[in-house]
From TrEMBL:
It comes from marine sediment metagenome. This is Uncharacterized protein.
Length: 289
């Protein structure tokens, strides 16, 4: 039987290089919520003042030496913040990268804004978005989702604190003052809660005059014009009997504002809730009454 013994001889060698693939952007979406992989859940170009804005960038690969960048601008073209992303390993699959931005103190003024997306320092594209001021109904919805409360056993006080709000407390021997502070000074709502010393408070007949004094200074400071006043005795949703005095004003821009002063007695003390609220936030202002 014949045998075949092929012989091979190296004729030539050749060198070659495996190049890393080029990183490319597949898509960009703006959103107010992302999942655990940074993919957009709620895509939108309109946000509320307290939203976190996400610029979600999907790329084919993420290779060492490449970088992504987002630049956020206000409606005057001023750069607010710049954020960058790079990688410490080669990723040979499509991934999402999300750049987030939130206003200072958790609040961004209503208006038109822009975000620029860069790949390797080259501008990829520009995306416009808008901050829409919430209406009063929207402002009052879902603002107590975290269960934040203020409590003080000494004065028998317990009330809810809106999400992202803080407070200051002055407990002066036998009286109390709690000032609720909004996440932004631009939010047109304010709450002040006070408790008098034991037995040291005004009679029912003196309350209207005291309410006048509290409100007159505020009107002068803000250059408001008094439009209407009213007062009544009511019972709250929590069964508390109280007197409230409502003052309606117009500001120089013809926006309507209200101040609400509510008084009630308990344990030989006078409790006072003072609220300032613009008309489009009335629903939120009524949450404490």
């Amino acid at each position: 039987r014949p045998e075949f013994r092929p012989e091979f001889a190296l004729i030539k060698t050749a060198n070659f290089i495996v190049k890393k693939p080029e990183v490319k952007i597949i898509e960009v979406s703006l959103a107010n919520q992302v999942d655990e992989d940074f993919a957009p859940i709620n895509r939108t170009q309109q946000f509320s003042p307290t939203d976190t804005m996400y610029a979600c960038v999907r790329i084919n690969y993420f290779i060492l030496g490449n970088n992504l960048k987002a630049k956020w601008y206000d409606n005057n073209g001023n750069l607010m913040v710049e954020t960058a992303a790079d990688t410490d390993e080669d990723l040979y699959e499509p991934i999402w990268a999300a750049f987030s931005f939130k206003g200072e103190d958790g609040y961004l003024l209503p208006g038109a804004y822009t975000v620029e997306i860069y790949l390797n320092d080259g501008l990829y594209n520009t995306y416009d978005f808008e901050i829409i001021e919430e209406s009063g109904a929207e402002a009052g919805e879902d603002i107590f989702t975290r269960g934040n409360t203020y409590s003080n056993d000494k004065y028998g006080v317990l009330f809810a604190v809106p999400d992202d709000w803080t407070y200051t407390e002055i407990d002066d021997a036998d009286s109390l003052e709690v000032n609720l502070i909004a996440p932004s000074g631009d939010l047109p709502v304010a709450f002040l809660f006070m408790v008098s010393s034991t037995g040291d408070y005004l009679s029912k007949e003196q309350l209207p005059e005291f309410a006048d004094e509290m409100n007159s200074g505020i009107a002068i400071d803000n250059n408001w014009e008094l439009v209407d006043t009213e007062g009544e005795e009511s019972v709250s949703n929590h069964g508390i009997q109280y007197h409230d005095f409502v003052y309606i004003y117009n500001d120089p821009d013809n926006n309507e504002w209200a101040t609400i002063t509510a008084f009630f007695e308990n344990n030989n003390r006078l409790y006072v809730l003072f609220t300032i609220v613009r008309s489009d936030y009335y629903d939120m202002g009524q949450l404490y009454i």
